[in-house]
Amino acid sequence: MAWEHGQCLIRAQNIAVIYNRATSLFRRDPFSALKDVSMELYAGESLGVVGRNGVGKTTLLKVLADIIRPDRGTVENFGATTAMLSMQAGFDQFATGRTNILLSALLLGYSEDEIKEHINDIIDYAELGDFIDQPLVGYSAGMRARLGFSVCYFLEPDVLLIDEALGAGDIEFRRKSAEAMQAKIRSDQTVVLVSHEANTIRELCDRAVWIEEGVTRMTGDPAAVVEAYENFVKVNPRGKPSV
Amino acid sequence: MGIFDQKKNNQFRIVARYVYYRVKSELTAETARTYLSYVWWLLEPILTIAVFYVVFGMLFERGGEGFVSFLLLGVTAWFWFQHSISKSVTSIRKEARLMSQVYVPKYTFPLCAVTFMLFKHLFVVLVLVGMLLVIETPSVTWFFYPLIFLVQLILILALSVLVAAIVPFIPDLTLVVPPLLRLSLFLSGVFYSQEMIPAGYVHYFRYNPLAGLIMEYRKVMLYGQMPDFVYLIKIVLISSLILAFGLWLLAKLDRIYPRLNN
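ok -> structure tokens follow
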């Protein structure tokens, strides 16, 4: 679907996600991953989400991708297709690379014809050669990462959700994929980029959201948001290293 | 470019294609690890059946004339049931990684498990019928075999969806289901006939749909009798209710499953 630049694609209002971890039959351990997050995503922009580890950034991506639904608040998607970049985590180890591309693409809603149209580009880009018809168990970690990256790169959902991974595979491919991804972020592709690396957000994003302890603390110009975030981290260091 | 249309009518088409390619890939992957590859689809059931034939037909010579056929009809039906349910038990649970990356309607996973076992069972049926052709006299009532087969498929599908839906919430069930399935081997009259049960218990025996279906298979394949249509319809109705409940559960919890094990 063609979106007009600046049109609202997804709107999240006061969302909260509470995981109810069952430790035994009678004990529930409630844990709020998100408490009160509001944000909007507009067509063509790249939105950076900063925050320390464990503040619910990944949970937010899952909500945006409609993988989970919030316990409170509302999420409206105005018809945009979404996909997480780290597709390789869902790959089937005993299937071939080619089948994995097909299965992933089907779940992202592509028809067989559309997949056929792109499959050679994906295979070429992943630099897998003859390995593409081998089961994934024989792949190196780098090969897997390359395949995962290429699938998402070529399938182009309306909204691309990127979780901390601006590079995959060996050094050579990491540079190639990082460059490709940066080009994509700078282009008209709508992107939500989650990162604890403030620099990446400052350099690549048009807008940024800072989440702390499951609450949106600030939204706006990436430089300003990142500065506020960094100052906060300096003043409130936490035992956990923000890796 | 394609659009991930989450509208219902489109969703089932996507799932059907996904199941098709996934099962195909799983079947190929399984055979790719062996030298005889596709031959195993036929060879495996032949070996299973041969074991029963040798033990009960040749070594023991028990149960008299026709006991081997009697046994095989029970064993194959039970194996199909047992393999399908065991595969379905963990079908949703083991897809935790996939589910956390992309939205997948959860009924996809038990459907994959049931389809996979259905395909493999078709080869078992092929060998079974081939064997019965040799040792039994074919009868017109053999044409009812596919009907009973279909009823069993609905039963399997219903129970598969139900266990797949519940197990992610109560993982302990993965340890409860295998002994229950083993129990079903002995309770379903695989090794004995209804006549060998004390009269007072036959009534309860009929409450076990697997036992009833095995009995129906034997009636049409061995004794030239018509199947009990009322009984079959009852199984279909109850299975459909269970299936509807299972699907309702999966739809209701569709976006809860990715939160488990978090």
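The radius of gyration of chain A is 19 Å.
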